[in-house]
Design goal:
Layout lengths: L2 E7 L8 H5 L1 H10 E5 L2 E7 L3 H10 L5 E5 L2
Antiparallel strand pairs: 1-3, 1-4, 2-3
Bound molecules: iron/sulfur cluster.
The site of iron/sulfur cluster has 14 residues, from helix 1.
């Protein structure tokens, strides 16, 4: 199954709440995925079965702080 990486740019994030609390579905998805940190970014790996949910979240972010990369 294909794997993807989600990257949250914490410097760009304006804490609008869409992905961190106001939407339970999105918050649950992100909290389960984000397992790594590097300077200014939080990262997580996920598989194709939840791609649509994560993509929906990335598209909902008003400042485009959520990036998805294909890794396999
Ligand atoms: S949707 Fe974007 S700006 Fe809003 S909390 Fe999530 S990452 Fe931050």
């Amino acid at each position: 199954m294909k794997k993807y990486r989600v990257i949250i740019n914490r410097d760009r994030c304006i804490d609008c709440g869409i992905s961190t609390g106001q939407c339970p579905t999105h918050a649950k998805t992100l909290s389960q995925l984000l397992s790594q940190n590097r300077e200014g970014e939080s990262l997580g790996v996920f598989s194709a079965d939840i791609y649509d949910r994560v993509k929906q979240l990335a598209e909902a972010c008003p400042v485009k702080a959520i990036i998805i990369e294909k890794i396999e």
